[in-house]
Amino acid sequence: MALAKGRRSARHVDYWPGFVDALSTLLLAIMFLLSVFVLAQFLLSREISGRDQVLARLNSQINELTQLLALEQGNTQDAQDSVASLQASLSAAESERSRLQQLLDQGAGADSEANARIGTLSGELDAQRQISQRALSQVELLNQQILALRKQIAALEDALDVSEARDRESNTKIADLGRRLNVALAQRVQELNRYRSDFFGRLREILSDRENIRIVGDRFVFQSEVLFPSGSEVINPAGRVEMQKLAEAIIELQREIPPEINWVLRVDGHTDNIPVSGNRRWTDNWELSSARATSVVKFLIQNGVPANRLVAAGFGEFQPLDTADTAAARAANRRIELKLTER
User: Fold this and answer.
1) pLDDT tens digits for 162-183?
2) Of 99, 198, 200, 234, which residue is most buried, by most CB within 10 angstroms?
3) pTM for the complete prediction?
């Protein structure tokens, strides 16, 4: 009967790790969504800044062309005034010529002074006609330039309207893209979290129910003593048995996760804060922790796990679970962590 009570106590389900797992997952999802939101805001601000610079350049060109148009209009008015003055002078000269011609007709045999006066007026009249013709040509040229400037201004205004319309359309597309990206990433995170929970559940079932194999947050933790002799990176026989079970679970999980989810299993090596001594292979705990993580990765690859789904990392003694200066704390810090995450 005492044995039955002991077995019921051993089968007692500890819900606390699952609760911590759920809280950690929720926190990761929130941080991820905040990162996506900041990225979308950055892309949006950069796009709007570029559009503002284009609009500023277009407005500057319109202002310059407007000033040129005003200047050309002033020149045209001056030319028109000159033409009017020349035409008035031409009319006066023609009137004078007609009067003198009448006097000449009335007084046949008029003196040479009248003839000289008529010749002079005729020369002045021809000169005035030439000046008037040149002025009319300049006015025509100015009118053509004004027309061309007006066409350029109209084209720039059309380009400005198109640019503003594209800005509005681009802003709408960016907002819609950000919204869809947030939804897709949230779904991807939720889906990966579901597979992570399933994976950890399988590991709990297939691995030995031992105190030195446990879940901490979103990671599955092996104490180093389960896998390695002290100061060594070679996996011991008992550790190979546990790693074989792990490899089978990963292979089974790979068949279920959709190919569009780019996931990896990260293997992190950690040591305690006691310096490496008596071992010429390792100069410090960095090298030992990295070598242990690499040994686990290589063993999993040898047992069928795809290499592109595994990552090895060493942290030495710089990521402790327990900062107390005790033997129990140092034992807890010597560990191999497995974390299912997105690449």
Assistant:
1) 878 887 777 777 766 666 655 5
2) 200
3) 0.47
